[in-house]
Amino acid sequence: MADLLDLSVAAAAAKIAAGEVSAAEYGAAWQAAAAADDLNAYLWTADEGSFAEPDWNGEGESAPAGAGEATPYGSNGPAPADSGPLAGVPIAIKDIFTTQGIPTTAGSKILEGYRPPYTASAVRKLTAAGAQVLGKTNMDEFAMGSSNENSAYGPVRNPWDRGRVPGGSSGGSAAAVAGGLAPAALGTDTGGSIRQPASLCGIVGLKPTYGAISRFGMIAFASSLDQCGPLTRDVTDAALLLGVLEGKDPLDSTSVGLDGGISMPTLESLAGLRFGVPAEIADAALDPGVRAVFEATIARIEELGGAVAEVHLPHAEHGISAYYVIAPAEASSNLARYDGVRYGRRAGGDGDLVEMYEATRSEGFGAEVKRRIMLGTYALSSGYYDAYYGQAQKVRTRIAGDFDAAFEDVDLVVTPTSPSVAFGLGEKTADPLAMYLNDFFTVPMSLAGIPAISIPAGLAAPEGAADGAPRLPVGFQIAAPAFAEQKLLEAAHALEGALGFAAAAGDAAPWKGGAGG
Amino acid sequence: MAELEAVIGLEIHVQLSTRSKMFCGCAVSFGDEPNVHTCPICLAHPGVLPVPNEEAIRSALKIGLALDCEIAPRSIFHRKNYFYPDNPKAYQISQYDVPICGPGRLGEVRITRAHLEEDAAKTIHVGASGRIHGSAASLVDFNRAGTPLVEIVTEPDLRSAADAADWARLLRETVRQLGVSDVNMEEGSLRVDANVSVRPAGSTELGTKTELKNMNSFRFLQRGIEAELGRQREVIGAGGRVEQETLHFDPASGDLTPLRSKEEAHDYRYFPEPDLVAIAPTAAMLAEARESLPELPAARMARYEAELGLDEAQARLLAGDPEQAGYFEAVVAAVGEAAEPRVVANWVTGDLTAALRASEDAERPEAGPLADLIGAVASKQVSHAGGKQVLAILVADGDADVAEIVEREGLAQIGGDDGELAGIVAAAIAADPDAAQQIRSGNGKAIGAIVGAVMRETKGRADGGEVNRLIREQLGM
After folding, report:
1. What was the ipTM of the complex prediction?
2. Residue A250 in contact with partner chain B when CB distance is under 8 A
3. Domain edges within chain B
4. B420-474 carries CATH number 1.10.10
5. In the list A25, A165, A181, A239, which could disulfide-bond A147, CB 3.0-4.6 Å?
6. Nearest residue on chain A to B87, alpha-carbon basis
7. A184: Cα separation from own chain's centroid
8. C-alpha pair distances (Å), A447 with each of A15, A197, A214, A310, A331
9. B285 touches chain A (CB under 8 A)
């Protein structure tokens, strides 16, 4: 069993396709692992032994005949295809993706018990490629958070140290992959929600170019920033999943796909590639241990033949400010539909309409969601639009311009993914601003709409930890121009091989059963 | 106090008759069982995204071109945010600062803009008055939610309730000719709201306006505006001030009651819809829309001048009103060789218009009877004056047999070769020797007295030109 779970997705899929591994056995092994979740990584898992028809209404019934047939996208539930590049591979799905008949909450109480009548395009892409929905993973409510402590269903624990957070908002997905509860997971990234938890959990997290993957069925947080992507153990698996997921979707007007698709990365040398290090990192608030791993990784790039140059992203420091105007503004509108009228939670049924709205939303939303709805509502209100939303959009344009200018001189831009390693549960919950700064290095790429990947680059002790305290993973972020995913994956693949993170982590790696509690 | 002039602008919602809704594949419907045309998208389930209906964009382009609007090379959608159960996403996808159709004109009224948006669901308030206050429960029918709409906004160029209703009719005809909407006011596929204010005549400043809603026929539109103009004049006459508010017209009572109070005024928090990309009509789409249009006023005017020999004023008058132009062309076709198009234009824009204005109950005759009448006058079977009498009967009674009317009313023109008119002329000259003498001595004006006498004698059945000729002939001139 353990051997099966050690296989990468690409290796497992190849063995299943070749008949060397039984899909049923492989699936059952992962179901057993997921069922043993002690990280609170899952909010729902498929019943053992069956990935078939999901429970339509919570009473053990399957979907009624014809359900969803009136929709333009047919009635397909997430039943997997028999063949395809992911045949027989179970994948954990962040609970922000709708799955027909399977509870979908986005980590919020307001959607408690909600069973969507349709399945997200990204999930359908996976199942059409033969993958199975292993479970739905925990997350910060509506993807708003950097620690997973904003879930209405309790925080997720970091498998490297259960007293620490896994990052967020795709914390359940990251913890499931790092903790050996899933071979790979689907997440979403709005300002770093795939890359930062991947960094804190020591795995690979890829945020593709905005528009590379359909957003249809991805519950919206900030529509102009949200993008789906894989969380995997290695870069090859990320490429495999991206190749399945990307594509223009007629149900998402903003989707464009990736021209030419994605092939498996093979690059081993970085010769001829130019890496840009933003000069601004020198003055950025960064844990010494994280800085040391970052500098060591730059040295490895040069050893592999890569050229390293300084670039300037002068407006990136305003990224957080712009992001925390734009994202809440869009969220305030996106989350207005949760009004208790058509689905999900309804409270205060006896009062008048406004009372019902207020009671429903007061009870249904958590504190961070309310904070952002208020921020966003204010930023869009009459008389303030230009000063906030309008201004933030200008900053966004400038940041995109900074990247354009940098990419004239270099192929890729590299930064740390997160300013620190995983922090303790409750450590930053009292200070939203400190929490927001977790996204300092990831937000600029989100605002620019460009692809970025976080790969595990080493281990570092938390700042201020006693000597001999367990060391935790540090992520290294690589960003590429829009739609240059192939180049990004090639470079990440070569660097990953040279860094040998999994080997270096050794028994400390939680998927080896070495995590302490 | 100076007279208070009416200043009226209209906001018209045209429901497009596309097969599917604006942003999803559900059918556009009317009168079906509630909530059968719904899907996760138009019910705003979590995670759904809108996809614009290309046919609706094509329809909006046709409307824009027909209204002589500037078409935006790239227009964008905005979200208009407000909470109400008829608005499932809690925002309406509409257009804000960059609409698909910019400034234009229809007839004498300038168009500010025309933009695409989606309709709300229908709320049914159970019990009490049918309005939300005092109702026992409210039900929502989402069949209509997401139906494509084009909202047309005019400049405040209308100066009376009657003009507003007339112009709205013209707009309906124009849109109807495009074939993009049923434009049925009772069914709500055409909804006209009015922005009404008054100001001292001659002033160029605008007074405080009120917005009138729920006038679901042209008659109610006119009555609603008249009632509101009366109210505003009264308020100002009594030294008061008009408050900016939205008023609901009750067709049964004719009353206007405030719909929303100021305290509930919405801040719609418009911002660009991030789920949609800009609408950038291709040259081919624009060309196709242009080619599919029926003849537009400017082209029609040019054709009337060049091919039908109308003078500029006549051509402009007819071409600016597609409905009247269509009628004019039908009459021209029915008249055939019997009269010049110029003569038909005179009848249609002159005598007919006057006859229709003369009475509330007057109805325009079919093209055939009017053509018969014009032919009879042109061939001098009926005098022009007699023709007007026939016309009065045509518009009043719906009687359509011109020959029968001429016969019954004894309006057949006197003249021709039987000598009857010559005899009446001779008798008139004999009866007024003074006038005859004056005419002979060169006073041309004096002929009027004798012509008048002949006309009285013939009860208008004589042709004026022929009478003149006979008088001169008999006086040896």
Report:
1. 0.93
2. yes
3. 4-288, 296-397, 420-474
4. yes
5. A165
6. A337
7. 11
8. 40, 19, 18, 21, 15
9. no
- Cβ–Cβ below 8 Å for A106 and B52: no
If you search the block for the tokens 């004719």, which residue do you land on?
A: B254
Domain architecture of chain A: domains with CATH: 1-312+398-517 (3.90.1300.10), 322-386 (no CATH)
- Residue B264 clears pLDDT 90, i.e. is over it: no
Amino acid at A150: N
Which one of A121, A193, A214, A454 is the catalytic residue? A193
Strands A42-45 and A307-311: unpaired
Given a contact cutoff of 8 angstroms between Cβ atoms, the answer to whether B61 and B254 are in contact is no
Place of tokens 């008088």: B471
Kindly give the residue spans of alpha helices, DSSP state H, lying in B309-412: 312-319, 322-335, 341-346, 353-358, 367-378, 384-397, 402-409
Close Cβ partners of A509 (under 8 Å, ≥ 6 residues apart): A202, A502
pLDDT number for residue A2: 58
Q: Which amino acid is at B209?
A: K
Inspect the interface and report whether the beta carbons of A224 and B276 lie closer than 8 Å.
Answer: no
Sheet holding B210-213, edge to edge: B104-106, B109-118, B148-154, B4-15, B190-200, B210-213, B246-250, B255-260
Distance, in Å, from the CA atom of B256 to the CA atom of B317, rounded to the nearest integer, reads 35
Residue A218 touches partner B, C-beta closer than 8 Å: yes
Q: Where are the alpha helices (DSSP H) in B28-133?
A: 54-66
Structure confidence by residue, pLDDT tens digits, B64-120: 999 999 999 999 999 999 999 999 999 999 999 999 999 999 988 999 999 999 999
Mark whether A333 is an active-site residue: no
pLDDT reading at A514 higher than 60: no
Q: How far apart are CA A306 and CA A433, in angstroms?
A: 36
In chain A, which among 67-126 make CB contacts under 8 A with chain B?
A: 68, 70-72, 96-98, 104, 106, 111, 114, 116-118, 120
8 A C-beta contact, residue B338 and residue B379: yes
Cα nearest neighbour of A142 on chain B:
B46
Give the C-alpha distances (Å, rounded to integers) separating A312 from A291, A308, A401, A406: 18, 13, 11, 7
- Strand-strand pairing, B246-250 and B255-260: antiparallel
